[in-house]
Specification:
This protein has about 220 residues and is α/β, with parallel strands linked by helices. Helix content is about 45%, strand content about 10%. The protein has a five-stranded parallel β-sheet, with helices on both faces. Strand 2, helix 7 and strand 3 form a beta-alpha-beta unit. The chain starts with 9 loop residues before the first strand and ends in a 13-residue tail after the last helix.
């Protein structure tokens, strides 16, 4: 977190799992609906997304825009199996997964509250080729940095620097909210204040420690 006297001029938010349904919830609903063996998907995440994941793996290349979604769908489908051992249909695979990820109205309201207090906000997201609801997000964020558009992915320090440059701020004047510990650690190493997201309520409380004016927005019992 940060010292009580931190001066914050902007708040940067991750998208999936922070402003939406938790990723684990969406994945569980998707695997259940399609009867995909969840262990096969967990193995993929471990190989491609863990701290020990090999650089340049298919997921990294998807996030940086180097691999088209259609190709990634085929590569991912080849590694998955249904509960009865059948192959998984690759066409539209990621779109089907993301259909179970819904916006979190409580978190979106938090972004709105910050903007009403006069704080710029930014979106910083590793894209899985998903379609962002820009009709909703455009009015909430002054800056949007998407990994596939800039060719960098969290936790690469460069993507944080790009975001800070677009905000026109040094690292110590911004807060970064993410649900991934490695992404949080990378931001902290650059000097940013950080909030590891677990729930909308806890994130609001943590941000209120850094943005005193936000405390007035808290329910009375938590203020």
């Amino acid at each position: 977190m940060a010292s009580p006297d931190a001066h914050i001029d902007a708040v940067i938010f991750d998208y999936g799992g922070v402003l939406t349904t938790p990723g684990r919830t969406a994945i569980a609903a998707w695997t259940q609906a399609e009867r995909i063996d969840p262990e096969t998907f967990s193995a993929v995440l471990k190989n491609w997304l863990s701290r020990r994941a090999a650089p340049g793996n298919p997921l990294h290349r998807l996030e940086t825009g180097e691999m088209p979604v259609e190709e990634f769908n085929r590569v991912l489908a080849d590694r998955l199996r249904t509960e009865d051992g059948r192959p998984v249909e690759p066409d539209g695979l990621l779109a089907r997964l993301f259909s179970f990820m819904r916006s979190d109205p409580v978190m979106l309201r938090l972004v709105e509250d910050l903007r009403r207090l006069g704080l710029p906000t930014a979106l910083l997201s590793n894209s899985w080729g998903n379609n962002y609801p820009w009709e909703q997000l455009d009015t909430l964020f002054d800056v949007a940095v998407i990994s596939s558009e800039v060719g960098r992915r969290k936790p690469d320090p460069d993507i944080y620097r790009i975001t800070l440059e677009r905000l026109g701020l040094p690292a110590e004047r911004a807060v970064f909210v993410d649900d991934g510990a490695p992404n949080i650690e990378a931001a902290r190493q650059l000097g940013m204040h950080t909030v590891l997201h677990d729930s909308a309520e806890q994130t609001r409380r943590n941000l209120a420690e850094l943005v005193p004016d936000l405390r007035a927005e808290l329910p009375q019992e938590t203020a």
